[in-house]
Design brief:
With about 300 residues, the protein is of the alpha/beta class. Helices cover about 45% and strands about 15% of the residues. The strands form 2 sheets. It has an 8-stranded mixed β-sheet, with helices on both faces. Strands 4-5 form a two-stranded antiparallel ribbon. The longest helix is centred in the N-terminal third of the chain and has 20 residues. Bound molecules: zinc ion. Zinc ion (ZN) binds next to loops.
């Protein structure tokens, strides 16, 4: 990746783009949900003023920064459609604004994205600590965790104690991926998401969390989630599955499901993370119908 591309996909660039939308459009508001370990603002954009709420999240995992940029691309298109009074996929701007509020949280783990994009500087205390957490390697391309080596998508309060036993069996410690942290919601990034979800849980009609591995949609198969799962699978062509093994503990979708919120993990793309950023347009084209029609469906 060129330095220019890295800068474009960085959490700072995503935040600037969200700020610009909040400044330009009266129906879009910027919400600060907290700070990451390194002091990045964890920022959401709220669009619309209806009671019914939808929440789309990206960037739980550092090397999955593409999800953050794609959610930002959607925020920009949606704001322009609303502003122009246009429709997309049968969604009329005016009816959307009156009946729904979309909350977008594109970068849950800004520090992790920064680490995956820019690596660590050896010779600095912070850099040396990260290199140690990374098993001595200076290659951070596949880094998923936050700045102290906790995987945010294992840090939610769902079967946490059971996962800690599995962690031991599998020799998982603080590092690039899969370490759940010392206790549920121990990380400021997780806490920011949990506070937001708890606050709006009653009015939340769906939670979609975007990752980048496997063209698959994970969910808990229940009467309340089944129709939504079929719908999401139809508009993307992705298969449906229930998470298994280590992936079925401590995730946001699991925790939200335990609160009776219809929740889905959407894994875009195939192959190894990070997905190539040159395919951004392809992925946006694949997800565009899902983004817009979800606003009507849920
Ligand atoms: Zn992920």
């Amino acid at each position: 990746m060129t330095q220019r591309e890295k800068a474009f996909f960085s959490p700072t660039a995503v935040q600037d783009r969200l700020d610009a939308l909040a400044e330009k459009f009266s129906f879009a508001k910027s919400l600060s949900l907290g700070k990451s370990l390194w002091g990045h603002t964890i920022q959401a954009l709220s669009i619309g003023c209806g009671r019914k709420k939808l929440l789309f999240l990206g960037g739980h995992h550092g090397s999955e920064y593409l999800t953050s940029t794609l959610l930002c691309d959607f925020a920009e298109e949606l704001c322009h459609v609303i502003d122009a009074g246009e429709s997309r996929f049968g969604l009329s701007a005016r009816s959307f604004l009156e009946r729904r509020t979309l909350l977008l949280l594109p970068v849950v783990n800004p520090d992790g994205e920064e680490i995956a994009l820019f690596g660590a500087k050896s010779g600095t205390p912070m850099g040396d600590k990260l290199i140690a957490l990374n098993g001595g390697s200076r290659d951070f391309t596949h880094w998923q965790a936050n700045a102290r080596g906790v995987d945010i998508n294992h840090n939610y309060d769902y079967k946490f104690a059971a996962y800690k036993l599995l962690e031991k069996e599998n020799n998982i410690t603080a590092g690039p991926t899969r370490f759940a942290g010392e206790f549920p919601e121990s990380e400021p990034e997780t806490l920011a998401v949990c506070r937001l979800v708890s606050e709006i849980a009653e009015d939340l009609s769906v939670l979609l969390t975007f990752h980048t591995q496997g063209e698959v949609i994970y969910y808990h198969n229940r009467p309340r989630t089944r129709g939504g799962a079929y719908f999401l699978s139809r508009v993307t062509g992705y298969r449906l599955a229930e998470a298994e093994g280590l992936a079925s503990y401590g995730g946001l979708t699991d925790w939200a499901d335990s609160l009776s919120i219809p929740a889905y993990t959407i894994e875009i793309g195939r192959g190894e993370n990070p997905l190539p950023v040159v395919d951004r347009g392809f992925y946006y084209a694949t997800l565009r119908e899902l983004f817009f029609t979800s606003l009507l469906y849920f």
